Amino acid sequence: QVDTGTPEASPAADTATGTSDSASAAITDRATTAIEWATETITATQADRDTVAGQIDTTTVDALLTQATGLRDRAQEAADSGTEDDALRLAFAAWGTANTAGDVIKAQLTYAGLPSQEAPSSRMLANAHEMIQSVSDETASATDTDVTFSVSTAQALYTSAYELYIGGAYAQASATARASTDLARVGWFLANG
User: Fold this and answer.
1) By the 8 A CB rule, do 171 and 110 touch?
2) What pLDDT is attached to residue 21?
3) DSSP string across the chain
4) What pLDDT, on the 0 to 100 scale, is given for residue 193?
């Protein structure tokens, strides 16, 4: 074969793993992108939290942002050490957790709701309860603290949503229930992803 000074048209196979160099590069690129998305979401949510800190209870938001930051940092460590699958899983969990923190902020800032929103809110809570119960059952034996954090915080958010519903704050209840299901999905993803 004559060396033309240009890269081969097809990537060289990595015979040790059976993967191509381009496949490995694609996974690394996805991990890097996912970490960037998580970082951007954490930064934006932190800015939102700081802006409205005097108007809402930031306890849950702060816990979610701390968890998201830890997941993102561990995703970066995994990427740096070459374990891209773990980097992707942790980065997506970080993004989902930070996104949930943003949803909790929005839920607290939204108007309480109107009487006509009672039935849709009730359906939202029923769906959230079913989903969180299912994820709780599936992850009951999980020993991963990230999974237990996500599931237990989702359960606490659901409890808050139910209390808002009972108090007639149907729009806030729906928004909080939506945040609880999003975080339950993060827990499921961490356990199964």
Assistant:
1) yes
2) 61
3) ----SS--SSPPEETTTTEEHHHHHHHHHHHHHHHHHHHHHHHHHHHHHHHHTTTS--HHHHHHHHHHHHHHHHHHHHHHTT-HHHHHHHHHHHHHHHHHHHHHHHHHHS----GGGHHHHHHHHHHHHHHHHHHHHHTTT---HHHHHHHHHHHHHHHHHHHHHHTT-HHHHHHHHHHHHHHHHHHHHHHH-
4) 77
pLDDT for 29 equals 84
Amino acid 2: pLDDT = 39
| Token reading at 38 | 């998580």
Nearest to 128 by CA among 88, 90, 173, 180: 180
Average confidence (pLDDT) per 10 residues, the chain, 193 residues = 39 46 69 95 97 96 98 96 92 97 96 93 97 96 95 98 97 96 96 87
User: Rounded to two decimals, what is the model's pTM?
Assistant: 0.83
Q: Which residues contact 98 (CB under 8 A, 6 or more apart)?
A: 38, 41, 42, 45, 64, 65, 68, 72
* Residues linked to residue 19 through DSSP beta bridges, in sequence order: 14
Judged by phi (left if over 0) then psi (alpha if -120 to 50, else beta), residue 3 lies in: beta
Return the CA Rg of the chain.
21
